Amino acid sequence: MSKKKNMAIDFQDNMILLTRKYLKRKIMCPETKFRHYVKERMHILELLKRTVDMGESNSVLLIGPRGSGKTTLINSVLKELSHVKSFKENALIVNLNGLVHTDDRLALKDATRQMQLENVVDGKVFGTFAENLSFLLDCLKSGDKKSSKPVIFILDEFDLFCEHHNQTLLYNLFDIAQSAQAPVCVIGMTCRLDVIELLEKRVKSRFSHRQIFLFPGDMSLSEQPLSAFDDRLELFQHLLSLPDDENVNRIEHQYDDCTIEPQFGSVWNDYIKSLVSNVTIVNLLKKMYQIDVSERSFRNFLAITVSSLSEKHQRLEINDFIEASKMFSQDDKVLMLEGLSVLEMCLIISMKHETEIYDGEPFNFEAIYNRYIKFANQNSSIQTVQKPVIMKAFEHIKNLEFILPVSGMNSKVEKEYQYYKFLLTSQQVMEAVKNYSGLPTEVSQWAVINM
């Protein structure tokens, strides 16, 4: 092989490895550009501006499910404000996390460090929590609105701070914010909708009761505007694209060790663009979006896909996306079904048939038992078991909430004749049957039979 050809191969291999490195960073370390919740973001932005520019004190809770974008929203606001001279020079930002700072002592110690008060402490070791708290409060309360530096407290996993003894930290932070002794803004982030109820009365009375909710998945895909899924397609293309000619210098500065050759990047981006219009990819992304609209899991999916790139695998094939999606698009109920015993799976299939025959009407144990026994008697390979064992399997299925008792129909009725509603779809049952390892052939065939 000629030296020139070897150099070309080495160049291509190097570009692929750099591409994988660059894309994984881009996907897993999201930029602070924020595309959603315009009103909510503006609300937070104005609160922080007023704290820094006017010396106002505020408190607010940002509430939304995991993956809804709470942290990204806050980071995008802080990134924007970091370009404002007054904010950059004056504001102190203290980040605390309920998972890390498991008690007030740890939280106060870290807050002191982040506020750069070690010099003031002058090597002093606090003997008690009360001393540390008193010192921090004195520092916060000293001066006035004009002379005190504004401090922004960001409390992630806010609900966990509510479990601290007497909620001392929260009480004092909200007290300072309410009394306006110093410009302080307290931002709590949580996924608990009932977080206000977790606050003690004295803490609640000092909180502003300002709550901002982020709910990305309120509507089904069919009810959402078309632009919602279009935005996901745009994000797909953006996250998998390499820097173009205009952005090469900026990107090179950001990722000094990931310099991508522009011509290689152009060819790569054309291919990614073709994937966006590929029917298989679009349907796959649409299915995943229906199951989970959160951007976090979507980025994790892309990171796993990109990880398949190597010197021997130099292009993202459609099958790479399909394989990676299996980790994110599987139905939890289907996974639970795959963990059932063969007997329990037979009862599930009996329920499926019973529901299909009687058009979704409720059923009782006796009906399912009779259907299973009929099947078992017709297949010599299926071992018959005693009725109490079958009842126990039925109750396990009930405890897993695959069936739901029908209210108003079960009072003073023996448990064998109590009525239940089947909560699974035929598609879920059939998918579990298909994926069930070691399920007897007769059972698989029985599931398919049109009763």
From TrEMBL:
Spans traversing the lipid bilayer: none
Location in the cell: Nucleus
Keyword Coiled coil listed: no
Residue stretches making up the AAA+ ATPase domain: 56-217
Assigned keywords, A-Z: ATP-binding, DNA replication, DNA-binding, Nucleotide-binding, Nucleus
Highest taxon in the source lineage: Eukaryota
Gene Ontology biological-process annotations: DNA replication initiation
Keyword Nucleus: yes
GO cellular component, as recorded: cytoplasm; nuclear origin of replication recognition complex
Alphabetized Pfam families for the sequence: AAA (PF00004), ORC4_C (PF14629)
Molecular function terms, GO-annotated: ATP binding; ATP hydrolysis activity; DNA replication origin binding
Subunit structure: Component of ORC, a complex composed of at least 6 subunits: ORC1, ORC2, ORC3, ORC4, ORC5 and ORC6. ORC is regulated in a cell-cycle dependent manner. It is sequentially assembled at the exit from anaphase of mitosis and disassembled as cells enter S phase. Interacts with DBF4. Interacts with POLQ.
Family under the similarity heading: Belongs to the ORC4 family.
Function description: Component of the origin recognition complex (ORC) that binds origins of replication.
Name of the protein in question: Origin recognition complex subunit 4
